[in-house]
Amino acid sequence: MNNFELYNPTNYIFGKGQTEKLATLIPQGAKILLAYGGGSIFKNGVYDQVKSALAGFEIVEFGGIEPNPRFETLMKAVEIIREQNLTFILAVGGGSVIDGVKFISGAVHYDGNPIEILKNRVLFTDLSKVIPFGTVLTLPATGSEMNSGAVVTIEATQEKLVLGGSALFPKFSICDPTVIASLPQRQIQNGIVDAFTHVMEQYLTYPHDALLQDRFAESILQTLIEIGPAVSQNPTDYKLASNFMWCATMALNGLIQKGVPSDWATHMIGHELTALYEIDHARTLAIIGPNLYRALFETKKEKLAQYGERVWNVTGNSIDEKANQAIEKTVEFFHTMGMKTKLSENTENYQDTANFIVNRFDERGWKALGEKQNVTLEKVREIVEMSY
Q: Using CA atoms, how far apart are residues 107 and 86, in angstroms rounded to an integer?
């Protein structure tokens, strides 16, 4: 097992009616930026719950954070905080709003051009140089409510880039599973596939000595397979909703990543598809993931076979047979969850996608991705072209 440090200071507050605790979680006298997205919180009652819980606090609202949060939009919030000397941010929304708030938190006191935060993958580790923030989660998917990473899109250059650091954990996250009752089915399907692929990025590498980590990962995958189709049909079922929300958090709160190798090439390629074509993040993962497993079959097949046996109960006479079955089971599951797993099913203008992504990775110096650093530029080209 690899050496590791596990640090997660987020106060995770789970269950029905927990939003009423907000006033006890935010420092008294705080001047709050209330950040949210396109307005769904007005329809599902969350906005009213939050405003009621924060009666007596000074609040400045900032709405309109996009599903893939834009650098250009977030900088407007940064200026508001600077101009009005706000001292706390509350993100009310899904992963995109929370990711956007992480960027805002780091950018307010950043010494330099804030676009460098994304271009240079800046890590924030000094708590005195960020604005503290908490979250009220409305869409389980990204796990951003209990981790310190974020992804932000630069609209001007059509780039989707990451930031993070130990100073960017939420102070608290309120996670009430009942909020998913009003979500569109597509968003719930996306959330299941997003969480599923987060686990796969940290699990589907090669055999190692961290036995418990594998079992943790496999249990999350099995639970998502069990509840995924049902919760997308019955989001008011509290048993289904609560397990969905907790799985999404556990998939990316750092626990299953400790002591093991991880991949993340599927995400790096998938982000480009979202930046180029506005394809939902989860749907880009469903397009790329299975073809990455096929292109890297020789180095991943032992873990694919283990995954097939333990998660899908496949049987076969060889590792290759079981590994191939595992890939097909994964694709079938994605289809069950409403995913279209070919790029041509999601956009018409896909013919030059591989060249574009390869050139962009080359410019950034991203020439060796994956757990074995064997996702070369030519492998990226192969994976994307297989995904057409």
A: 13
Task: Give residue for tokens 């580790």.
Answer: 125
Element (H, E) at 89: strand 88-93
Task: Residue 173: name the closest of 142, 141, 144, 131 by CA.
Answer: 144
Query: In terms of Cα–Cα distance, which of 256, 266, 142 is closest to 195?
Result: 142
Residue 289 to residue 301: CA distance in whole angstroms: 14
pLDDT digits (tens, 9 = 90+) for 24-48: 999 999 999 999 998 789 988 999 9
Q: What is the DSSP string of 197-242?
A: HHHHHHHSS---S-HHHHHHHHHHHHHHHHHHHHHHH-TT-HHHHH
CA-wise closest residue to 303 among 226, 193, 194, 201: 201
The CA-to-CA distance between both ends of the chain, in Å, stands at 38
- How many Cβ atoms are within 10 Å of 199's Cβ, its own excluded? 23
Selection from 266, 293, 270 nearest residue 353 by Cα: 270
Does residue 172 sit in helix, strand or coil? strand
**Whether the Cβ atoms of residue 118 and residue 159 lie closer than 8 Å to each other:** yes
User: CA-based Rg of the chain, rounded to a whole angstrom?
Assistant: 20
The C-alpha atoms of residue 148 and residue 164 are separated, in whole angstroms, by 5
- Spatial separation of the C-alpha atoms in residues 274 and 266, rounded to whole Å: 12
DSSP state of 157: G
| CA separation for the pair 357, 169 (Å, rounded) | 31
Q: What is the pLDDT of residues 54-103, one digit of tens each?
A: 999 999 999 999 999 999 999 999 999 999 999 999 999 999 999 999 99
pLDDT along the chain (388 residues), means of 10: 97 96 96 94 93 96 96 98 98 97 98 96 97 97 97 95 97 97 95 98 98 98 98 98 98 97 97 95 98 98 98 97 98 98 96 96 96 98 98
The whole-angstrom separation of Cα 243 and Cα 220 is 10
Per the CB < 8 A criterion, the answer to whether 253 and 316 are in contact is no
CA distance 239 to 16: 12
